[in-house]
């Protein structure tokens, strides 16, 4: 279990901190005379104290905040108006589940080219950088992640995609796809 000071230091450093998929926030973080209160913030805006099993499930994500090194356009199968899964779920799935050969054969990684009239300001920051898009074989969990060039996350995704395509599971899926 991570200490309160470790969690607070991560939040102050701008890292994404989650528990069970929800964001962890610190109240009173700027006031040295008060002890910061850690809370779990739900997607609907409600929050509650970080305690018990959720305290033990805290994770600090080293890949930056969305909009910093990467932007998640989609990740995982979700209903309309629900947020995509965090980047860590894609990294784990890439190491355990073969990519869908239908998508992988046309390329997972491409260069982003934004039209100024069609992209938001945050999307324009990624113009000329890379997009990783695809799906998985036998598991519907499509993804489209925009990643800035030269980042640690780009290197990690390159490594995971290459290992996935070289795996026996992917080769079996590819043979089945071709038949």
Protein model, in words:
Keywords: Plasmid. The chain is 32% helix and 23% strand. The chain is of the alpha+beta class and 179 residues long. It has 2 domains: 4-61, no CATH class; 70-178, no CATH class. The strands form 2 sheets. Strands 4-3-2-1-5 form a 5-stranded antiparallel sheet. It has a 4-stranded antiparallel sheet with strand order 6-9-8-7, covered by helices on one side. The termini are far apart.
Describe the structure in brief.
Helices cover 32% and strands 23% of the residues.
Which descriptors would you attach to this protein?
five-stranded antiparallel β-sheet, globular, four-stranded antiparallel β-sheet, plasmid, 179 residues, 2 domains, alpha+beta
